[in-house]
């Protein structure tokens, strides 16, 4: 008889022994099982962790695709706002520069500027002051 | 993920074997029941949300750990008892009733089965006795392989040893058990 066959026969005997357990033992095993089941770790949603920014203002039953859409929107919106802001600042600076040049041209055309002023470093400042007075 | 019913069914399917294994190890029915209950609770508390397929190896490992913990606690307790009895002298020892020991021995499963008139019951009881007499590691390997139906790799993982060691333990257990049973007139 080989090892496996011997093991199988011992197994049969041991299984037979478990069937002959007395009532007290089986009752206590049953009680132990009930006590263990009462302590079973709760399965399901309690173990799912979501970042706060996803759950804020979003129903908990939101699907995964809905969440990813919102996450994409949350990332794109500030980026768009930043680009629009940069364009706005650039436009405002351009308009200001054009306006300054126009003022200078206007003063020169009216001949209100002394000739020596053209060589002066503070010429533009003078022009600015005079333009404000106008 | 194991539902409550699945976990219940699983525990119901293994509880008797677990009890017997614990009893073989600690040789005390009450302690074995406590061990099984402890193992069941640990499984439900810590791994109750695992898939059903993962439960058998987890439970076997937990059961073995709880049995080992029992022996560790027993060792510590016996150390303290030895220490106290050495300090208190021999008067304390006289309080114990020698009949209690005799009653416990006669109430054990092996003795009950020996009194049984059914031949098969006697054979089963003798096999149980001899399995219980095997060295702990050999018995663990043998029972996991042939009773729990675990393969060599799973048994090695639970026992924390190599697959070669599992094979050696199993082989030695088989030969020792066969020799012991033959000596008692039982041939399987």
3D architecture notes:
The complex is a heterodimer of chains A (134) and B (188). Chain A is an all-alpha fold and 134 residues long. Chain A has helices at residues 3-19, 23-38, 52-55, 64-109, 123-133. Helices cover 70% and strands 0% of the residues of chain A. In chain A, helix 4 crosses helix 5 (123-133). Chain A starts with a helix and ends with a helix. Chain B is 79% helix and 0% strand. Chain B has helices at 4-26, 29-47, 55-88, 98-107, 109-115, 119-133, 136-146, 152-159, 163-183. Mean pLDDT of chain B is 82; it is low at 97-107. Chain A binds chain B through residues 1, 3-4, 6-11, 13-14, 16-21, 25-26, 28-29, 32-33, 35-37, 39-44, 47, and chain B through 1-4, 7-8, 11-12, 15-17, 19-20, 29, 33, 36-37, 40-41, 43-49, 120-121, 123-125, 127-128, 131, 142-143, 145-147, 170-171, 174, 177-178, 188.
pLDDT average of chain B, as an integer? 82
Summarize the main sheet of chain A. Answer: none
CA-atom Rg of chain B in angstroms: 19 Å
What distance separates the N and C termini of chain B? 41 Å
Helix content of chain A: over 70%
Overall geometry of chain B comes to: globular
Beta-sheet strand percentage of chain A? under 5%
> What integer value in Å does the Rg of chain A equal?
43 Å
Strand count, sense and barrel status of the largest sheet of chain B are: none
Descriptive terms for the model:
heterodimer, A: 134 residues, mainly alpha, 0% strand, rod-shaped, B: 188 residues, 9 helices, globular
List the helices and strands and how they pair.
The complex is a heterodimer of chains A (134) and B (188).
Chain A: H1 3-19, H2 23-38, H3 52-55, H4 64-109, H5 123-133
Helix pairs in contact in A: 4-5
Chain B: H1 4-26, H2 29-47, H3 55-88, H4 98-107, H5 109-115, H6 119-133, H7 136-146, H8 152-159, H9 163-183
Helix pairs in contact in B: 1-2, 1-3, 2-3, 5-6, 7-8, 7-9, 8-9
